[in-house]
From TrEMBL:
Protein name per its UniProtKB record: Type IV secretion protein Rhs
Native species: Aquipseudomonas campi
Length: 102
């Protein structure tokens, strides 16, 4: 599911390869934190998270909605599952809206 989010991002015009190249070297050199780690915040929307966080958020939401456990370490830390619905509200309403990209 995580990788399918990158397909969705690309289909909406997001430059996945370029942003991935910029995001990952920073984490390798210690300039940035883990690009996958996220903390859900009720005041944020999906577009407020980077491309890797979006992949994990949507994958975790899908897993939890399917009766499974969250897949990522970040997702397993979420105690209030309604936060997923708040963060993903606009995306779930209209996945074709390019404003949901990072």
């Amino acid at each position: 599911m995580h990788e399918m989010v990158h397909v969705w991002q690309h289909q909406l015009g997001y430059w996945v390869k370029l942003h991935g190249m910029l995001l990952h070297p920073g984490s390798l050199w210690g300039l940035l934190g883990d690009p996958y780690q996220y903390t859900l915040d009720a005041t944020k929307k999906l577009q407020d998270y980077n491309m890797e966080q979006q992949g994990d958020i949507i994958a975790d939401h899908y897993a939890l909605s399917s009766g499974l456990s969250a897949l990522s370490n970040s997702g397993r830390q979420v105690r209030d599952r309604s936060l997923f619905n708040l963060v993903l509200a606009d995306f779930l309403k209209d996945p074709s809206n390019a404003n949901a990209r990072p």
